[in-house]
Every structure is written in C-alpha cells, then in structure tokens.
Amino acid sequence: MEFTRKNRQLLSRIATNDRHGENSHYFDGWKAYDSNPFHPIHNPDGVIQMGLAENPLCFDLIEKWIRENPDASICTAEGLDKFKDIAIYQDYHGLREFREAVAKFMGRVGGNRVTFDPNRIVMSGGATGANETAIFCLADPGDAFLVPSPYYAGFTRDLRWRTGVEIVPVHCKSSNNFRITRAALEEAYEKAQRSNINIKGVIITNPSNPLGTVLDKETMRSLVSFVTDKKIHLVSDEIYAATVFSSPRFISVAEVMQDMDCNRDLIHIVYSLSKDMGFPGFRVGIVYSFNDDVTNCARKMSSFGLVSSQTQFLLASMLSDDEFVGNFLRESSKRLAKRHHVFTKGLEEVGISTIKSNAGLFFWMDMRPLLKEQTTKAETELWRVIINKVKLNVSPGSSFLCSEPGWFRVCFANMDDKTVEVALDRIREFVLQGKEENNHEADKSQARAQRWRKQNLRLSFSSSRLYDESLMSPHMISPHSPIPHSPLVRART
Amino acid sequence: MTRTSSRSNLFSRSIGQVRISSRAISIAKPNESPYYIGLDKASEDPYDRLSNPDGVIQLGLSENRLCFDLIEKWMSENLGHSITGRDNGELNINGIATYQPFDGTMELKLAMAGFMSHIMGGAVTFEPSQMVLTAGATPAIETLCFCLADQGNAFLVPTPYYPGFDRDVKFRTGVELIPVHCRSTDNFALSVTALDQAFNQTRKHGTKIRGILLSNPANPVGNLLSREMLYAILDFAREKNIHVISDEIFAGSMYGNEEFVSMAEVLDSEGFDKNRVHIVYGLSKDLSLPGFRVGVIYSFNENVLAAARKLTRFSSVSAPTQRLLVSMLSDARFIEEYIKTNKRRLQNMHALFVAGLKGLNIRCADSSAGLYCWADMSKLISSYSEKGELELWDKLLNVGKINVTPGSACHCIEPGWFRCCFTTLAEEDIPVVLERIRKAVENTTDLLNSS
C-alpha cells in the first residue's frame, strides 16, 4: 500500500488524474462488450457492440482495389522499387502526393464546391490527435472552448487531458432537434465571461456525433459570424462528411466561408479517414487551418503523430483513383442508407423514435418513454438493463453531456446483416416487455403524474433550471396540451 | 504568400485580434536552430552523384541507408505478406483497417520484444506486456514526459544532446531540460558529480527535477555508458527519488568493440528499483525505417504503462505497418544477417570517414555506436565561441554545400564540435565531402598544415 502510494506520487498529475475520461459510461459498455462479445455461432448470447462508430460496410471495395493495384503497396513486386524512398521518408510535411490526394478527396466529399490546398494539409495521429493538436495551437491551459452538446464523449480527453483546456457545453434541446442556436451560443459565452472563463473558441462536429445530422447553411453561417464577432476560433470536425447518405447535403465550413465576411484566421477543420473510408486502424488524421501560424505550429507538432509513410503512399494512390473514389462514395452512401433504414423502421414498429438523421454511423434514439423518471439516474439504470439484460452496448446520452436524459446513441454500421436482425429482435422484445410491465405500473404512475402536474404549474422556466437533471425536459410538456403527460402513460399508447 | 499572411497575422495579433495559444506563437516562428535550417536547405537542394552533383550533401540527418538492399531482398522473398496479409490466400482488410489496440498489437509487441533482445546481443529478455508502441520514438519521449513530470518541472540531460529533445520534451508538456555539461577532456563522459551539481543548482532555483533523460548509445557523441556508470546513475536516481529515461534507439548501430549494456540488463541482474526506469526504442535507426513511425516505451512501472497506454490514443502505429513488421521482425535468420551486415558496413564507413577527417587534421571523439561521428573543428573556427562555430557552420553549408550539425544546436558547452552523419553516403562520396570541407576552410592555416 505504502509502496503503491509512493509509486503513484512519482507520476505526473496528467498520469494520475481522470481527465482521460475513461471512467465514463461510454467506456463501461465497451468493457462489458470486451468481456462477453457477441458471435453468431460461438457466443449468440453475447453483448452486441453498438457503441463503436466503425464503418466496415465497404471493405470489399477496398480489398478489390488493393488487389488490383499492387504497385500502391511497397511490399509487392510492383511497388518494391519505391520501398527505400518511402521507408526513409520522415519529413513532417508529408508526401506531396499524399497531401494532394487527401486535398482532392476532401474537396470531393464536399461536393467539389471547395478546393482544398495541399499545403495546408497537416498530419496527426488520427482525428483524436488532430483535435488535440488544434487545441494545443489555439488555447492555453485554463482557457475554454464552447462545445454544443450532445457531443462526442472522446472530446473530454482529446480537448482537455494534456492541453489543460476546459469544455463549456452549449446545451441543445430536442424541442428544435438539437439545433445550435445563436442565442444558446451567446448565452453560454456571456455566462462564461461573467465567471471569468476565457473562451478561445467553439468546436463542432459536422455531421454531428452523436446526432447524425448535418448542419444547415444558416447554422453554419451563424457560427462563422458568431466567432468572427467574438474574435474566437471555430474548429469544425468534419470526420463524418462522407457518411451522408441522403439529403440534405454536407456543407463544409470551407464552403460557407467563401461568400461570407469573416476572419479566415479563425477557421480550422479537422478531418480523418477513420469514418468516411473505414480506416481507423491506419491512423490518418488531418488538421486543415486557414491560419498560417496555426498551420505552421500544427505541422511541427505533427512529429508526434505522423502517418506512416507506407500508409501515406498507399492512400496517395487510392484516393487519386477518381473512378474508385466516385464508386466508393456512392456505394458507401447506399449501404449506409439501407442499414439506417432497416434499423429506424424496425424501431418505429415498436414505437421507438430517433432524431431524423441522414449521416454518421449511428442514430440518436429516444428512450425517454421507457424511463421511470426523467433523470440521469433513471437513464443510467435503463442503460445498465440494456447492457446486462438486453445485451446491447449502446451509449447513454449522459456520456455525451446531453442535458435531456433518455437519449442513446446506437451505432449501426459495424456489424453484418444477420447481427442487425438479432439486435433488432432484442430491442423489440425488450420494448414490448417494458410495455407489459408498464401496465402494472399504471396506478403508481398516475399518482406520480398528478404530483408532477401540481409541481410544474408552479415552476417557472428560467434557463438555469433547465440544467437541473431532476426537472422534466420542457419538450415533454407539449405546448399544445395544457396537461403534462407522464412518459409512462405515453408508452402505453 | 505565406510570409505576407504571417505578417498580417502579426499585425492583427498586436492589436488583439486573433489570439492563438502562447506556445503556438513561439512554435510557429520560422526555425532558428541551425539543426533545422540545415535540414531544410539540404532537402531543398539534395546532392545526387549523377543528377545534382552540386547539391547539398546531407550529413545532418542521422539516417542509415547502408542496408536497404537487405530489406528489399527480404521483401521480394517474402511477398504475399502485403498490407492486407494472407487469410487462406484471400485478402482480408478487416484485420487491419478496423480499430486496433492503440498501444500496438500483441503480435507486434512479441516480435519487437524478440527483436530488441536480439539487437542487444541476447543479454536481456523483454516482456511484451511491459511494452507500449508509439508512432515513433518522438511521441514515446513526449508521452513519458507527460507521465512523469508536471508543467514547470524539469529533466536533467547530459550535453551535448540530440536537438530533437528540445521539441520532444518541451513543446507541449511545459517541462524544462536542464543541461548537465560533459567535456572533451574525458571524451564527454557523464559524471555523477556533474549530475549532482546540476540537480542542486536547479533545486535552489525552485524547479523540481523529475528525472534524467539519457541517450545510450549517446547522440551526438556516439559513446556508451559503462555498466558502472549505469549503476551510479541508478543509485543517484534512487537517492533523489527521480526517474531515468534511457533512449536506446541506437543500440543496434554499434561499430566499435565496446559492449553495449542496456538499462534493462542492469535492472535484470541487480536489485535496483525498477519502477523508476523507462526505456525508449524505435526502428528509425537500427532498421532504417523512420518513415514507418514505430517507437517503443518499455517500462517496469505499471502505473506509467497504464497512463502511457491511454496516451497512445494520440500516437498509434499505423495498422498496415504493424502487419508488415510482424513478419519482418519475426524472421530471426534475416534479423541475424541484418545485424551482422549492418555492423560490418557501419564499421567500414566509420573507419573511412574518420580517417578522412583525420587527413584534414580534424579529430573525432572516441565512439562505438551511432550513425555519425563527433568531429572537433575548433581549430578551424575564427573565434573560440558559438559565433565562430556558427560562422564555420554557415561556410560549410553555403560554400562547402555540406550540412553538418553544429555543437551549439546540441547544447555543447565547448564550441567547434560538429556532428557528421556518414550513413547516408556511399564510399565514393567520402572524398567529395572531404574536398568540400577543404574548400570551405581554404584560408585557415591549420588545415594547410595537416599532417
């Protein structure tokens, strides 16, 4: 004991604090999966992984391309003559062909409405490294970034752990489909100012993780003008840009900037191939800044997370193959759309709704009807049931800092069709079972509903109360109905 | 275009417009260190015997090009192990494209453990479970600093040292490096007295020392730490309750007859406190694969390993590269041949180069390893100072068209020393290099009085 304590004292604060965020429920579910992973034959009762946003749907296309293009790989007869030069290449600028190919790909993903400059392409260790590098370049320890919630659980680590920078969430609400409003941004900014918190910028994911929605032009313009007004930065994590599978189309911040009066030095994009191409193992992260100093600084920092030259070489070739890229993007969208449809339809049939989404590798599922009460505690209880009884690893909204309890992110791309069926069956069974149990609870819930009604008529809707987790979300109190509905009552109908 | 924009940035920053972080302001500035300036110049106008004979000869980047033929031969004999690997003859990208353990696959760790053991003469066994793989030795060093020290703390580092340490340790961690000066009088050997002095002085100024950062074999000098010195360092570290980071990236680049002793070997045999020792390794030097980004943190401290594993989220080895290397590193016969041949060729180049410099009355420090020699050109500088040294460096680069690393970039306390990497050369390039040095210092009398 004594030795361990002394041992830990030998370590830094960073090594011993929990700003890495791995103690969050987001990762608990993964642990549950790791210890009991589903397999259709060997472990049909195992936990199905629906918490990992991976995209293997188009691996067959990639395998085919690799097989047909042996000279793109330095470890084949055709590519061997390049081996020496590639193996020795460690320049942090990155291979020119790689940067050109990535710039072209990013342009394509944005619908060819923007041309990206290969000289602004800076490498990093995955998008994880890219987000962290961006923060290292833009903020000092103790500064803060505004982050619209719900947001990617990994931001807790990527934006904060080693940088010492804080996150100030900007809570978005289901009442307007979690849109980021100027008013919410302004309010969060003012509040931070009053508390002497130095806001250095805003970071968004577009398409959104966990919502799976694309930001519309108006919201994008509003964000750009907000940061220009306040002279703070905007980091747009566009890692899911090519996972858009139906309209409306993806609009990069780069596109929006083109016909706006804004300060380009404030705009930075984070990109990666982990989601769009399904290559998380390759560790390809990109920082693309319109600010020269940030580009220079990030490039020097890229030494800490350069992309393997072998990988750069392969991707330079693959992403320059226009026909392949066109076909891949089309197929990928098709397969994602189909998978998305299968799931959302299946859920609809049992009365589970999801936020209307057209991108990402997941959907944002509304389980509020199944909550015993609208609290984070109840959400956690429900989540434990889903993990342990239903055996699905889904991610609870609280791990995304969602201010409304009851939402869950469900990843749909990282499994085969058979597993999809099993997952849907399990959800259907659980929901129907839940409805039966609710009937027994009806009397209890009526009494509870009475109490709520009495309470709510006395309450005012001042914004500070909205963060109080014990208060029902205002959405539940429909403006069209004079009487608030109990969620349990709703589930019955 | 870049220049103008930067200037306008400077302007706008000065009137409080766009604020980036404090560290970014200093990092974004153009490189002032001759180490980087020289590298840039050499890469802009690289020498090629046939196509660009007047280009800059690169002697400032410690790269080993001597044994690529062996690696290419291995590749051509072991094809089919492409990036996707074999799976009953079918390609299977699923295994490498998806998320992998961020600290490296167990297969690669096993292969790396075997390789490291082999490289160090079989004198020590490495445990894969104590290994964390990173995207190069650069993030390995940075990661360890993040784990072992807080912002404002410091590491002691013997000088002269690898210029990259200034980036690896200081850029983002906020940790300082305190030089522990070594001198030519004893061939730049480290002494505990010097360590102690530096420790006490730093403490007086209110800075907390968290550890010692060593490179063994040393860069840029190329000498080794003796077994006795390793014991002494470990004793010192225990007495002061600090860590030891031993960067052993050149362990397999031996050309001398001295025996290399790893920290791991010493810990194995004696009863030292293992919890404070961490070894860094990588494939950039010994196996000439700097582009692939493969580094190792090897520690005996479970808490450090646990933290380092989480930090590899930011710097993981690319999966296709992991797959390729497992095959290569596991081929014991190949590795054996490679190590033997590499040593022979290193010995040869080293001997030729050092003899060549001797012919110009330039002597080198005694060294047994590395891809470079540490040359004393103090007699050729106009004034015995950093200024004089940099003037000579500039002459060598711009007149002589050779890029060497001046000692001041390595924080050497004695002016006039230069690191010259010889492993990017072919034998026939050596006379060209010597001629260019001669030309660059033509009017220096000492050179003309060469023996």
From TrEMBL, chain A:
The keyword Kinase does not apply. The keyword Transmembrane helix does not apply. It holds the Pfam family Aminotran_1_2. Residues 48-427 form the Aminotransferase class I/classII large domain. GO terms for molecular function: 1-aminocyclopropane-1-carboxylate synthase activity; pyridoxal phosphate binding; transaminase activity. PROSITE patterns: AA_TRANSFER_CLASS_1. This is Aminotransferase class I/classII large domain-containing protein. It comes from Gossypium trilobum.
UniProtKB/TrEMBL annotation, chain B:
Keywords: Pyridoxal phosphate. Gene3D superfamilies: Aspartate Aminotransferase, domain 1, Type I PLP-dependent aspartate aminotransferase-like (Major domain). SUPFAM superfamilies: PLP-dependent transferases. Residues 57-437 form the Aminotransferase class I/classII large domain. The keyword Coiled coil does not apply. Pfam families: Aminotran_1_2 (PF00155). GO terms for molecular function: 1-aminocyclopropane-1-carboxylate synthase activity; aromatic-amino-acid transaminase activity; L-aspartate:2-oxoglutarate aminotransferase activity; pyridoxal phosphate binding. The keyword Endoplasmic reticulum does not apply. Belongs to the class-I pyridoxal-phosphate-dependent aminotransferase family. This is Aminotransferase class I/classII large domain-containing protein. It comes from Gossypium trilobum.
